[in-house]
C-alpha cells in the first residue's frame, strides 16, 4: 500500500484502517488574528512520512474553526489521543493569545505514556516545568517544529497496518512479542479484537483493557485486562532420591514485592527474562546469575512453554530442567548470595526435598506444577512450537 496521509479534524470520524496515527497536541488559537502552528506541522508530516501505509493525523481544531460543543470536543480529543501512536506536543506558548492551559493538563496525562514527544521555541515562556518532566520521562525534545515532527516519526517508525479494534493498540505494544503471541492465539480461535485501552505501562510490563468478540459464544467480553511482560525461562535443577518426595530440588529465595509468604520472601525456581539469545540462552544465564552454577547448553532438557497465569497474564514460562551431581548440589547449598544487587535482585540458594516443598507450601501452584512436570516419570521434551502443550 502506497504511503498516504489522512487529516482528521475535530469531531470527525477516524478512518477504519491505518499504519500509524499522530495527535497534534498543543495550544490552539481562539481568535482569527492568530495563526495556528498545525498547518506547518501537517506540511512537515507530508514531506517526511515514509512509512508503508496510511498515516492519520488528528488535529484538535475544527475544519472551519468552529467550537460549538465543548463536551463533544473533549470526548473526541480523549478518544483520539488514545488512538494515537505518537502524541506530538508543540507548545509555542504566548500568554495573551495561546496560554496553553489545556495543553498543560494533557501533558501531565501523556508525558510518561511512551508516546509523547515535546517541542517548543526556546523563547516560549512557561515551559520549564514541562521540559523538566520531559527529561525525567525520557521524552524526545526539540526546539523547533521540524525537529519535533522528526522525533514523532522516529518514535512511530514504519508503522504497522491495523484495522477496527486493532487501531486501539498503539505501536509500542503492537510489536511486543507477548502481545503478538496472545493476539495470534485469539485470531486463530476466530475471535475479534473489538477495542483496547492501555491502562498501565511500567518498564517492560503493560496492561491492556480489551474488548473481544468470542466467536464460539457469539458475545463480546469486555470486563478483563490482559497483563503482559516478556516471556521467562525457568529451570528445575534436581537430584533424584530413592522416591519422588526424596528428590532434592534447587530453589532460590528472593524478596519480591507481591509475595505473601510467612517469611516475606518468594521461594521459586531460578529463572527470568532476557532480551536476546532465546529461551535456552536466557535459562543458562539466569541459572548462573541466581545460583552461581554454570551449565553447558547440552545439559538442559526442554519441556516447552506454557502460560503461568492464563486468567491474568499473557506471558509464558519456557521450562527447562537439568539433573545435577551430588558435588554440584553440595556446592549450591553452600553458595551465595547471588543475583544482581544493583538491580534490586538478591537470591539465596535453597536445596529442598520435593516432599517438603509440597507439605510446607513453599512455592506457588504454578511453580509446584512445573516441578511436578519435570519430576514426572513420563515427562519429556515438548514440541517447541506448541505453546501450552507438555509432552506426556
TrEMBL record:
InterPro entries: Nuc_deoxyri_tr2, NUDIX_hydrolase-like_dom_sf
One Pfam family cited in the UniProt record for this chain: Nuc_deoxyri_tr2
Protein name, entry field: Nucleoside 2-deoxyribosyltransferase domain-containing protein
Native source species: Actinomadura fibrosa
